[in-house]
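Exam review. A common question shows you a sequence with its structure tokens and asks you to describe the fold in words. Practice with the pair below. Do the first one on your own.
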Amino acid sequence: MAVGAVITLAIILVVLHFQNGHSPAEQLALKASRVDLVERMRLDLASASEAEKSAVLAVTDDDSQRFADQARVAAVQVEQERKQLEDLLATGGTSKEKDLLAQFSKAFTEFQTVDKDLLVLAVKNTNLKAYSLAFGPAADALNDMNTALSRLVTKSAAAPEARSVALLAFGAQTAALRIQALLAPHIAEESDAKMDQLEARMTKDDQEVHKDLDNLATLAIFNGDTDLAIATSAYTRFSDVRAKIIPLSRENTNVRSLAISLNQKRKVMLVCQDALATLQQAILDEPIPGVDYGHSTLPR
């Protein structure tokens, strides 16, 4: 009987050995490797998200592109680490850990999909370019027009047509300024319908400017007048710049990328990080026969 008991114990020990596959020290090392991989994934995921936000908020194309590239590189590192962890869990992970990694993988796929669209938008900076045109060349052209029209009013003050000149000049100036005032709201607007309304108002004011300038041109005192030519040319420049601003504003890449970053991207980022934190804790909680260690709880 004693011999039988010894043989039975030996068989149990052999079975346990092959079930574990590793010594306690080796299992601890494998656990540390898995925990370290998850931690690196969390850090690289945070780096990718931070770089993405910097790309969205950057004010130049070069900076946006640089941060977007950094975000893509960090995301690739997360994917490489995910595959390494998947391999480790395949041979030494629990079913719970595998399920948690699968949950992260699903969320990370969504993360990558959102990032792909977001980063393409972020580097275009169409809203910033539209603002630059509106407050640069467009404003300069309108200033030249207003200055020239003011000279027309001044030099015609003693003429019989003085009142008509003032009304037409001020009418053109006022309508042009209304157009200018609508450009910034158009650039900031998210809704296509509201942009349509703003453009309709601009078109109406544009017709007013052209009508007043044409009526000034019919007055004999301004036949061949240099200031009227300058005013007309300046408004044409303003209109040309406005024609560039509107399509840039319509693309809305800065507005759209910021909205995506603050909504879809933030939500999927939280899901990814929560899945990794839960997975990391599950690995830490995994018992190792013969090893007694304190319980650790990771901060979320």
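Now try the second one, then compare your answer with the model answer below.
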Amino acid sequence: MYTSRRNFTKWALSGLPSLTGLAALHSSASAQARANPNRSYINGVQFGLQPFCYHDLVMNTQNRPELVRRLVQNGMGMVELHATWCEPRFDGGGVSASEAREKLRNWRIAAPADYYRNIKREFDDTGITIFTYYVNISDADTDAEIDATFEAAKILGAKGCIGSYGLQIAHRLVPFPARHGLFVGLHNHDNLSDPDAFNTEQSFEKGLAFSPDFKATLDTRHFTAANGDCLGFLERHHERVSGVHLGDRRKNNGRSTPFGEGDAPIIQILRLIRDNQWPIVALLEFEHGTLRTEVEEVRLMFDYCKRALA
């Protein structure tokens, strides 16, 4: 087990600025610190949130104002925004699953740019940058729908589209990011029995070889549970890593834990990013049960990370 939160000294909050465009992903963190202010750029590491952390908050358009409020409350200046916070739902009473899916497809293709510009403004006005747009693309998506999704991400100011899909879908996505000036984020899980899944370093290497516009989003919880080497992966592939979903979990497909109580090398990951000035965004995420409120749990996670970088 790695060092727990009890073993750190008192931390001090830094007010440095953050990353901006796609080109910024490959420039030094210190240069970005002089560019645009971002409240969650801490001592050389850009933090954000994977807002699945707010388990009690239904991910829909009606709750988006509460999402923004909580992000500000937790001191976040960057977010990975799920499409479900932006897209209307069509699965009301009397509507079949296939009908709802067709309505969503048609809505995506026809949605005006101003719809997404207004959403972007909601986040901009509170100092939050949308880093990536999370959409679970599948075989059911048409090419026109995928193009519309990437265009929506671009209007929102995202640098890339990410989702939970495997090698087959990733291969299909090869033509899309270049058309929109974005990257595709490949996200891993811990299911080692699925040959199509991103679950090992080797599977990531296969996916990254599809296109220079593909980048890894290393989920430290899943990679640790699958007995992967997070530090070794980052040392070998950092130039192709856009971000990490930073969470803790036990090895051997073990349970998710609070930060510092599992086997994920969270402290070492953060210091590796800081010391090498890698422009890798650390998106906090947790799935463990807690008796605290989700906002309080995120605060504790963020405090843990700040102390690691003090």
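Model answer, second protein: Residues 1-35 have pLDDT under 50 and may be disordered. The longest helix spans residues 294-308. Full marks require stating both points clearly.
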